[in-house]
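Deliverable D4.2, example record:
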Amino acid sequence: MYLHNWEDWFHFFTGFLAFITFSAGLVLSSPSKIPILFWFSLFSPILVPLCMYSLFFSVIGALYAIGKTIMWLKNPKGQLHTFPAEIYETHEFSDGLHYESIVDSLPTYLYEKQPRDSDNTCSICKEEVQLGEVMALLPVCVHSFHKTCIDPWLITNMTCPICRCRVDQEIPREVLVFSEY
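Output generated by the structure prediction step:
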């Protein structure tokens, strides 16, 4: 008998259960003077397979859990939950830039209310920007945020919170021309 895959094991196991159930039914079907044997003979066609299936699937579940645990221990980077200390480690991106160099290179300015400013709220913290607060400008899309809000944002996301353009991409020529004025 060759049991190479789970289907073979399943068919072997169900055949074995059918044999046990049939045998128990034959042995216990004769009338008995002991009441417990009578009740057992009545319910054995249901109880024996139920217990065997429960045992079978419990063993399969335990083996699956052990396998998943071993895989998790072999690959600690594949954890679902990260601790805050791990979030603030240096992230290296595909082009070799570190987020610190990108954050440090962002242009900053002190906020002054302009007559054309209709919306003066920071999109990250949703608070109104006050006069004299330090703001950081994302050069690619020209969106600005509180410096204290955009720095933590860029640690986990290298995209603009509003338009989702990548912050580490090359600055378009239009922005360079615009910034000269």
